[in-house]
Write a structure and sequence with these properties.
This protein is mainly beta. 11% of the residues lie in helices and 40% in strands. The chain has three domains: 189 residues, Sandwich (Immunoglobulin-like); 133 residues, Immunoglobulin-like (Sandwich), CATH 2.60.40; 128 residues, Immunoglobulin-like, CATH 2.60.40. The strands form ten sheets. Strands 19, 23, 24, 26, 27, 28, 32 and 39 form an eight-stranded mixed beta sheet that branches. Strands 17, 18, 20, 21, 22 and 25 form a six-stranded antiparallel beta sheet that branches. Strands 29, 30, 31, 35 and 36 form a five-stranded antiparallel beta sheet that branches. Strand 23 and strand 24 form a beta hairpin. The longest helix has 27 residues. It is rod-shaped. The N terminus is likely disordered.
Length: 498
């Protein structure tokens, strides 16, 4: 019996120690942790005690891009990685009677899929548990047997590991004692995708640039990427992406365009890989996608993206990993100009002409202003009004960068009959203020953009002086008439005397 017991111990050790300690890879290390976290009972020698209940402790770790290492079945001191909270596990007992020696044959080669094919022991109700803040979950009161452990749920961005097999009891590192409380350290990676927007100093009609950074999964052994789809959701009412301008790189190297296809449908860009060679050559890396888009309307412009790829840890399952990015926002508003007569309140002036500039400070007309809408001069309508749309916010750019810029109006021509202002009098400043909508620290849809208002007044031109008429002219005529009358009277008297 002693010889048989040693065989059982060796097979059990091989079955579990052969699992991987890997990033997002199949397997785990199951170890008898004497004096370590979990404090297993004293390992028992000699024959298996089939009446004793066992316990399985799982510590879920994020290896964070570290390299995969083969399990050795020894205690893992200071296990690498960080704890992963919120990972849900399911444990099922396999329909294998370990009291029969023949059932130990080829146990070292047993995979999770193979174990499940042997059937589930219906006398044992499957258990579920979720890791706590320490990445720990325990399953207690386990009868002696073979168990399949499956990750059923994981937090966003966590790539679920493959199901693995563990036995209760398990042999210690030396293969000399039975441990009824094994501890396992399955490893995962927490992959993240991100989104950026570059819209500084871009107005309506200009191109802004979206940058999407998506992860490639970690790979071990013969794993490979077989599916990789990047999506970019945009607001088709406000921007128009340029398909021909899209570029992808990985590890600083441009990915040839014949490695993927690009579709633009219903406000979504979809980039589908058809050649995975460069992705498989760069596991645990990033694909950087740049998408130029033309701004065509004002308002709050929201954009988000994401990536979907096959989970390389679950080759036998139809399971994809989808990782969304953060949302990014751009803000565009308008200015409303009113032109009036300076001396006649409420009298609108048509035909005043303006150019628009951007100032990177708060001063206009100091020589460092940059003209925008270069090919356009704006003119007031018959109501003396002018609306200029599609102006970038002056307090926020590139999604969340706080700035303090100014827009400037230069009056280049006054309405006919009015004075065109000169020097500093020709310049008028205004700002476009955006207020993002927040839920806690997170920016969400619903931000507002305050329109600017500017009222500008003109004075009439001076006109030539007209000849004077009225009181003074009539007096002169009267005096001339009186003189004529007097002269006539004098000549009449003189004639009478003669």
């Amino acid at each position: 019996m002693k010889k048989n017991s040693m065989t059982i111990r060796s097979v059990t050790f091989a079955a579990v120690a052969g699992l991987s300690l890997a990033i997002a890879a199949p397997g785990a290390i199951a170890v008898a942790q004497d004096g370590a976290i979990g404090q297993p009972q004293d390992a028992q020698t000699a024959n298996i005690n089939f009446t004793q209940k066992g316990k399985l402790t799982i510590f879920k770790r994020d290896l964070g891009g570290g390299q995969a290492t083969e399990g050795t079945g020894v205690v893992v001191e200071n296990a690498p990685g960080t704890a992963l909270e919120g990972v849900k596990f399911k444990i099922q007992k396999v329909n294998v009677d370990l009291s029969k020696a023949e059932n130990w044959n080829k146990l070292s080669e047993l995979t999770a899929a193979g174990a499940l094919q042997k059937g589930i022991d219906q006398s044992f109700q499957e258990l579920e548990g979720t890791t706590d803040q320490d990445g720990k979950v325990e399953f207690t009161q386990l009868p002696v047997g073979i168990y399949v452990v499956t990750e059923t749920e994981a937090p966003q961005g966590v790539i679920k590991g493959a199901p693995f097999v563990v036995s209760v009891p398990f042999t210690d590192a030396n293969g000399t004692k039975w441990n009824y409380e094994p501890v396992v350290y399955p490893k995962n990676t927490k992959a993240e995708a991100s989104k950026e927007v570059s819209d500084a100093n871009k107005q309506q009609g200009d191109d802004i640039t979206y940058t999407v950074k998506t992860p490639t999964p970690a790979l071990v052994r013969n794993q490979s990427v077989k599916k990789y789809v990047i999506t970019d959701d945009y607001d088709e009412s406000k921007v128009t992406p340029k398909k021909d301008g899209i570029k992808l790189t990985i590890a600083g190297e441009e990915i040839p365009s014949d490695n993927y296809s690009v579709e633009d449908t219903d406000g979504q860009i979809t980039i589908t890989f058809t050649n995975f060679e460069m992705l498989n050559a760069h596991p645990s890396s990033q694909v950087v996608t740049t998408i130029p888009a033309t701004v065509k309307a004002q308002g709050e412009i929201k954009n988000s993206a994401g990536v979907t790829f096959n989970n390389p840890n679950n080759e036998n399952e139809i399971e994809d990993v989808t990782i969304p990015t953060n949302e990014v926002f751009s803000y565009y508003g308008e200015v409303n100009v009113v032109k009036e007569d300076a001396n006649e309140a409420g009298k609108p002036l048509q035909g005043a002409k303006f150019k628009v500039y951007r100032s990177d400070d708060t001063t206009c007309g100091n020589g460092d202003d940059v003209r925008i809408f270069e090919d356009k001069t704006f003119e007031t309508d018959p109501q003396g009004k002018l609306k200029i749309e599609g102006l970038h916010a002056t307090n926020i750019e590139d999604n969340n960068k706080i700035i303090n810029k100014t827009f400037c109006l230069e009056e280049v021509e006054a309405p006919a009959g009015y004075v065109t202002p000169k020097d500093e009098n020709a310049w008028h400043s205004f700002k476009i203020e955006a207020t993002p909508n927040k839920e806690g620290d997170k920016v969400v849809s619903g931000g507002t953009i305050e329109a600017a208002s500017v009222t500008i007044k003109n004075t009439k031109q001076s006109t030539p002086k007209l000849p004077m008429t009225g009181g003074m002219g009539v007096g002169i005529l009267a005096a001339i008439g009186a003189a004529i009358v007097a002269a006539g009277a004098w000549f009449a008297r003189r004639t009478a005397r003669n």
